[in-house]
Amino acid sequence: MGELARLQQDGKVEHVGLSNVNVAQIRIAQGILPVVSVQNKCHVFMQRSLRDDVVGYCARSQIAFLAHSPVGGHGRQKRLGESKLLLELARRTDATPWQVALAWLLHQGNHIIPIPGASRPESITSSLQACGVHLSREDLAALDGLQDW
Ligand SMILES: NC(=O)c1ccc[n+]([C@@H]2O[C@H](COP(=O)([O-])OP(=O)(O)OC[C@H]3O[C@@H](n4cnc5c(N)ncnc54)[C@H](OP(=O)(O)O)[C@@H]3O)[C@@H](O)[C@H]2O)c1
């Protein structure tokens, strides 16, 4: 962080973000330089960043939260299509299980930016359409209750 602060002072770095951190680590970094973003793994089956208050802390501190591996992570994304709850919500909202998973993330706060990876254009188009998937309070509560992998 000290080196990054020096690079920032030299004008070589504009903004600094952190990845895979907890609240204590964000606080330490903030003691050295301004933190603009945090990028942690976060999806319906990996909700640690919500439960340990990283997402909440970022909201209160005006830090963007970039949810990495938002549809399960490369190579594990197929597992979302096997979830009974996601399949049921997808059927009800006329969406796919992956879109429901992204919509759940987007419902967690305006500072959440899911960053799905894709090798196919169809995946990108589909992910963009997740912005239009509405989930009810009950749907969100059911998804909140999923156990982490
Ligand atoms: N900071 C870190 O430590 C860290 C760690 C891991 C990942 N990341 C970052 O997180 C981002 C995403 O990670 P990731 O690619 O591993 O995980 P991911 O986004 O959860 O999964 C990507 C896979 O899901 C599929 N997919 C994406 N959108 C979909 C959709 N709407 N419907 C159906 N399938 C969909 C893609 O399929 P196709 O390939 O068939 O299109 C791709 O193979 C990347 O930018 C990566 O660099 C950061």
Judging from the principal axes of the Cα atoms, what is the shape?
A: elongated
In the CATH scheme, what's the topology name? TIM Barrel
Measured by DSSP, the beta-strand proportion falls in 5-15%
Q: What's the end-to-end separation, in Å?
A: 32 Å
Secondary structure layout plus pairing:
Layout lengths: L1 H8 L7 E3 L3 H8 L6 E5 L6 H4 L2 H7 L3 E5 L15 H10 L3 H10 L5 E3 L6 H9 L7 H8 L5
Parallel strand pairs: 1-2, 2-3, 3-4
The protein binds NADP nicotinamide-adenine-dinucleotide phosphate.
The site of NADP nicotinamide-adenine-dinucleotide phosphate (NAP) has 23 residues, from helix 6 and helix 7.
Short description:
The protein has 149 residues and is an alpha/beta fold.
Fold and architecture overview:
By secondary structure, the protein is α/β, with parallel strands linked by helices. The protein has a single domain, classed as NADP-dependent oxidoreductase domain (TIM Barrel, Alpha-Beta Barrel), CATH 3.20.20.100. It contains eight helices and four strands. The chain has a four-stranded parallel sheet with strand order 1-2-3-4. Strand 1, helix 2 and strand 2 form a beta-alpha-beta unit. Helix 5 crosses helix 6. The longest helix is centred in the middle third of the chain and has 10 residues. The chain is elongated and about 50 Å long. The protein starts with a helix and ends in a 5-residue tail after the last helix. The site of NADP nicotinamide-adenine-dinucleotide phosphate (NAP) has 23 residues, from helix 6 and helix 7.
